[in-house]
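User: quick one, fold this
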Amino acid sequence: MILYGRDMSPFARRVAIWCALQDRTIERRQIQVAGPEWEEVKAVNPLGRVPALVLDDGEVLVETWAITDYLEETAPEDRRLIPTSGAARRSMLQDIAYATSTGEKIVALVYDKVRRPVEFHYPAWIERLEGQIIAGLRAMEGRVPIEGWMSGTDAPGGGDIATVVSADMARLVFPGIDAGPLPHLDRLIADAQTIPCFAQTRPKM
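Assistant:
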């Protein structure tokens, strides 16, 4: 399988870690959608978005939720990263939902504050995005246990992956955003960094 999207994308990084934790072998195409390689991305996904996963038979999957759904459906039972039913599944899907929403706001802020020329900045909108990121970080903080993984098992699950990647991205790209003390998130990120697939995909700033 071939994964399009670089680790600066919290969503491509999420898929890469997901595959690694399921012991899947993938080829990485770490191309930048905002650069000259956009045409290469559009050849795979007409919308020019990442992640995109090309399966071994040539089928292309786009959007993180659809890709991880496929990975869960086709993984051996002992390699699945989301519970199959019940309260545990609903809780983890909510973990992923908060992380996804926060990640989307981080990406939006990159485009509005970093890529857009200063003379075209919209301060009120930037303030709104920053407020949403702060709210997301605080919501994720409240969902992380004092110790151990959010999955409640001895290994990270889908909620842990999504939460770590989004929170880590906020810290790396916008260190000036102050959401206050986030000790549980800090601990979770530190624990995740002891696992090779988390450490190896952490963007170099």
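User: anything notable?
Assistant: The longest strand covers residues 2-4.
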